[in-house]
Amino acid sequence: MTDDPLTGEQALARVFCLDDLLPDAARRWQQVARTVARDVLAPTIEDDFETQRLRAEHIPALGEAGLLGMHLHGYGCAGASAVSYGAACLEVEAVDSGWRTFVSVQGSLAMTAISTFGSDDQKRRWLPEMAAGRAVGCFALTEPAGGSDPAAMTTFARRDGADWLLSGTKRWIGLASIADVAVVWAQTDEGVRGFVVPTDSAGFTARPITGKRAMRTSIQCDIDLDDVRLPDDARLPDARGLRGPFTCLNEARFGIAWGAMGAARTCLEVAVDRARTRHVFGAPIGARQLIQAQLADMLLEYEKGALLALHLGQLRDAGTLTPAQLSVAKLNNVREAIRIAGQARSILAGDGITDEFPVMRHMANLEAVRTYEGTDEIHALILGRELTGSDAFS
Ligand code: TGC
Predict the structure, then answer these.
(1) Catalytic entry in 143, 251, 336, 373
(2) Ligand 1 centre and the CA of 246: distance in Å?
(3) Whether residue 251 lies in the annotated active site
(4) What residues have CB less than 8 Å from 356, skipping those under 6 apart?
(5) pLDDT tens-digit profile of 176-210?
(6) pLDDT digits (tens, 9 = 90+) for 231-270
């Protein structure tokens, strides 16, 4: 043992503690999220990952804590700042990316779509129930042919008298099989439009994707839409073109930039714990220069990523955040969180691959996070276009 028997969490906080940099309101939200994450979600998380189970019974606890759609205003939503929302995402993902994904799909995607582009009736019908966790939403944009180019979507909504008939397939849609409502994006004769679709509509089918080695506490689905008949008031009146879904993706990317640093923090804390307590060759492994250098590198990237997330939140609260700035943070923070998880696994040696530690679970989850809401390649090309003025997507 070292002379100062601190936990990894205490040792990390001695060097860098994001909590201390948060405004009071954000710190209160952070504590609320940390309590729910640690007391409600964490106790069963390893079992749930092993058995591939999303415990729907935990959803109301997230709602009661105010964490669902917490950055939105009115209709039962808390109206919290972006920094508060980010800090909450970080705390949830410190336990598991699957649950942060739940918070993102419900709040950043489905609720944001309805709040930003919906009619007053749509908002009144869905937002209070979703904020309370009594109704679950999903966001159906990606299609089986690929997620990077939503402009190529083939799902189509055609007019049939006063109604719409919606047909097509979607893939990788979080929560769809337990959702009460789906926000579905489709081509129409007037361009891309969004539709608020109750999931008990005839012709709507969602099937969970099996065989996932990541995000096992969450659900992602294939959706079939077979001439789903919708009244015109199911259309989101204020969403026209791809700007609609991309506006929602911005919110989800924001939560990811923060959340990934939660997973990174957990891995770093576990590695520091291990370094201080594991003895090899007659001394704690943390007394060796090789381990200390690795821990220092992990700390640098965690601290830089957390500060970047905070910077992003401050820009968002000032109303000046741009999509390119989001790409910087999504690309950097997920990439570095994966590296931190990998280094933590190495420090834990063989034990690092077991479920005695959360590290492999985080590492696997982060590989999924790296891919959704814009792959590394897409965000690199967004930044390349921003810097050069040349579009290299095709
Ligand atoms: P382009 O077709 O030229 O632009 C279309 C319109 O959209 C606007 N726009 C944005 N608006 C707000 N925020 C953004 N980030 C925006 N990006 C583009 C753009 O200004 C234009 O507006 P307008 O009014 O002129 O029509 O598209 P682009 O060339 O700008 O974008 C190309 C590219 C590759 C960057 C974009 O297609 C992209 O971001 N692709 C990645 C898509 C992605 O992240 N897909 C993964 C989604 S994850 C998912 O669906 C699952 S949800 C999670 C779950 O359910 O678990």
Answers:
(1) 373
(2) 4
(3) no
(4) none
(5) 999 999 999 999 999 999 999 999 999 999 999 99
(6) 999 999 999 999 999 999 999 999 999 999 999 999 999 9
Best CA proximity match to 378, nearest among 148, 196, 224, 120: 148
Pocket test for ligand 1, best of 246, 330, 393 (most atoms within 8 A of CB): 246
Provide the CATH topology of domain 137-241.
Butyryl-CoA Dehydrogenase, subunit A; domain 2 (2.40.110)
Q: Look at residues 214, 174, 171, 218 and name the one whose alpha carbon lies nearest to residue 338.
A: 214
Residue type, 117: F
Q: How far apart are CA 312 and CA 308, in angstroms?
A: 6
Distances from the Cα of 289 to the Cα of 292, 294, 300, 342, 349, angstroms? 5, 9, 16, 18, 16
3-state secondary structure of 73: strand
Task: Report strand pairing: 181-186 vs 137-140.
Answer: parallel
**Token output for 109:** 């995607």
CA angle 238, 184, 63 (to 5 degrees): 85
Please name the fold of domain 244-388. Butyryl-CoA Dehydrogenase, subunit A; domain 3 (1.20.140)
